Amino acid sequence: MRILALDVGEKRIGVAISDELGWIAQGLPTLKRQTKDRDTCAIANVAEEKCVTEIVVGMPVSLDGSLGKKAREVAGFVEGLKRRLRLPIKVWDERFTSVQAERVMLEADLSRKKRKKKIDQLSAQLILQSYLDSRIKSCHCEEQ
Q1: Are 116 and 9 a contacting pair, CB within 8 Å?
Q2: What are 56's strand-pairing partners?
Protein backbone atom coordinates (compact mmCIF):
# COMPACT_ATOMS: atom_id res chain seq x y z
CA MET A 1 0.00 0.00 0.00
CA ARG A 2 1.57 3.25 -1.13
CA ILE A 3 -0.12 6.60 -0.75
CA LEU A 4 0.76 9.65 -2.83
CA ALA A 5 0.23 13.17 -1.48
CA LEU A 6 0.00 16.38 -3.46
CA ASP A 7 0.37 20.01 -2.45
CA VAL A 8 -1.19 21.79 -5.42
CA GLY A 9 0.02 25.35 -5.92
CA GLU A 10 -0.25 27.86 -8.75
CA LYS A 11 3.26 27.23 -10.12
CA ARG A 12 4.27 23.88 -8.64
CA ILE A 13 2.86 20.65 -7.24
CA GLY A 14 4.64 19.24 -4.22
CA VAL A 15 4.69 15.44 -4.20
CA ALA A 16 5.32 12.91 -1.43
CA ILE A 17 4.86 9.16 -1.09
CA SER A 18 4.46 6.79 1.82
CA ASP A 19 6.52 3.72 2.53
CA GLU A 20 4.75 0.41 1.78
CA LEU A 21 3.52 0.07 5.37
CA GLY A 22 1.93 3.51 5.29
CA TRP A 23 3.93 4.86 8.23
CA ILE A 24 6.48 7.29 6.83
CA ALA A 25 6.19 10.04 4.20
CA GLN A 26 9.09 10.97 1.97
CA GLY A 27 9.32 13.70 -0.64
CA LEU A 28 9.49 13.15 -4.38
CA PRO A 29 10.59 15.68 -7.00
CA THR A 30 8.28 18.69 -7.28
CA LEU A 31 6.29 18.99 -10.50
CA LYS A 32 6.25 22.29 -12.36
CA ARG A 33 2.66 23.24 -13.28
CA GLN A 34 1.79 23.17 -16.97
CA THR A 35 -1.72 22.57 -18.31
CA LYS A 36 -4.32 20.67 -16.29
CA ASP A 37 -4.05 17.73 -18.70
CA ARG A 38 -0.25 17.61 -18.48
CA ASP A 39 -0.34 17.98 -14.69
CA THR A 40 -2.84 15.13 -14.42
CA CYS A 41 -0.80 13.00 -16.81
CA ALA A 42 2.40 13.60 -14.80
CA ILE A 43 0.63 12.61 -11.57
CA ALA A 44 -0.84 9.51 -13.26
CA ASN A 45 2.66 8.52 -14.38
CA VAL A 46 4.07 8.90 -10.86
CA ALA A 47 1.13 6.95 -9.41
CA GLU A 48 1.64 4.10 -11.86
CA GLU A 49 5.43 4.05 -11.53
CA LYS A 50 5.25 3.95 -7.72
CA CYS A 51 2.31 1.48 -7.55
CA VAL A 52 0.15 3.96 -5.64
CA THR A 53 -3.14 2.70 -4.15
CA GLU A 54 -4.52 6.05 -2.94
CA ILE A 55 -3.94 9.78 -3.41
CA VAL A 56 -4.30 12.51 -0.79
CA VAL A 57 -4.53 16.12 -1.93
CA GLY A 58 -3.94 18.99 0.48
CA MET A 59 -6.99 21.26 0.71
CA PRO A 60 -6.21 24.89 1.60
CA VAL A 61 -9.02 25.39 4.11
CA SER A 62 -9.32 28.88 5.63
CA LEU A 63 -8.69 29.34 9.34
CA ASP A 64 -12.45 29.55 9.92
CA GLY A 65 -12.97 26.25 8.08
CA SER A 66 -14.44 27.79 4.93
CA LEU A 67 -13.32 27.08 1.39
CA GLY A 68 -11.94 30.12 -0.41
CA LYS A 69 -10.93 30.70 -4.02
CA LYS A 70 -7.77 28.62 -3.76
CA ALA A 71 -9.67 25.70 -2.20
CA ARG A 72 -12.25 25.79 -5.00
CA GLU A 73 -9.40 25.66 -7.54
CA VAL A 74 -7.91 22.64 -5.78
CA ALA A 75 -11.36 20.99 -5.67
CA GLY A 76 -11.60 21.44 -9.44
CA PHE A 77 -8.15 19.92 -9.84
CA VAL A 78 -9.21 16.95 -7.70
CA GLU A 79 -12.28 16.41 -9.91
CA GLY A 80 -10.00 16.29 -12.96
CA LEU A 81 -7.79 13.72 -11.22
CA LYS A 82 -10.82 11.60 -10.33
CA ARG A 83 -11.91 11.55 -13.97
CA ARG A 84 -8.45 10.48 -15.12
CA LEU A 85 -7.38 8.05 -12.39
CA ARG A 86 -9.10 4.96 -11.06
CA LEU A 87 -7.78 5.44 -7.54
CA PRO A 88 -9.37 6.64 -4.32
CA ILE A 89 -8.59 10.36 -3.99
CA LYS A 90 -9.11 12.14 -0.69
CA VAL A 91 -8.65 15.74 0.33
CA TRP A 92 -6.85 16.58 3.56
CA ASP A 93 -6.80 19.81 5.54
CA GLU A 94 -3.43 21.42 4.84
CA ARG A 95 -3.72 24.40 7.18
CA PHE A 96 -0.30 25.55 8.42
CA THR A 97 1.74 23.00 6.42
CA SER A 98 3.55 25.71 4.45
CA VAL A 99 4.29 27.59 7.69
CA GLN A 100 5.52 24.35 9.28
CA ALA A 101 7.66 23.54 6.25
CA GLU A 102 9.17 27.03 6.26
CA ARG A 103 10.05 26.70 9.97
CA VAL A 104 11.67 23.31 9.47
CA MET A 105 13.83 24.66 6.67
CA LEU A 106 14.76 27.80 8.61
CA GLU A 107 15.83 25.62 11.54
CA ALA A 108 17.91 23.57 9.10
CA ASP A 109 19.51 26.86 8.03
CA LEU A 110 18.66 26.42 4.34
CA SER A 111 19.21 29.40 2.09
CA ARG A 112 16.19 31.25 0.68
CA LYS A 113 16.93 29.73 -2.76
CA LYS A 114 16.96 26.17 -1.40
CA ARG A 115 13.83 26.81 0.69
CA LYS A 116 11.96 27.98 -2.40
CA LYS A 117 12.93 24.77 -4.22
CA LYS A 118 11.91 22.48 -1.34
CA ILE A 119 8.85 24.19 0.20
CA ASP A 120 6.26 22.39 -1.96
CA GLN A 121 7.86 18.98 -1.52
CA LEU A 122 8.13 19.38 2.23
CA SER A 123 4.54 20.66 2.45
CA ALA A 124 3.34 17.54 0.59
CA GLN A 125 5.40 15.43 2.97
CA LEU A 126 3.80 17.11 6.00
CA ILE A 127 0.30 16.68 4.53
CA LEU A 128 0.97 12.99 3.97
CA GLN A 129 2.57 12.41 7.37
CA SER A 130 -0.44 14.04 9.04
CA TYR A 131 -2.77 11.78 7.05
CA LEU A 132 -0.72 8.66 7.84
CA ASP A 133 -0.56 9.54 11.55
CA SER A 134 -4.34 9.96 11.67
CA ARG A 135 -4.84 6.52 10.09
CA ILE A 136 -2.47 4.91 12.58
CA LYS A 137 -4.17 6.72 15.46
CA SER A 138 -7.64 5.61 14.33
CA CYS A 139 -6.42 1.99 14.09
CA HIS A 140 -5.14 2.18 17.68
CA CYS A 141 -8.43 3.67 18.87
CA GLU A 142 -10.40 0.85 17.22
CA GLU A 143 -8.23 -1.77 18.95
CA GLN A 144 -8.97 -0.41 22.43
Answers
A1: no
A2: 5, 90
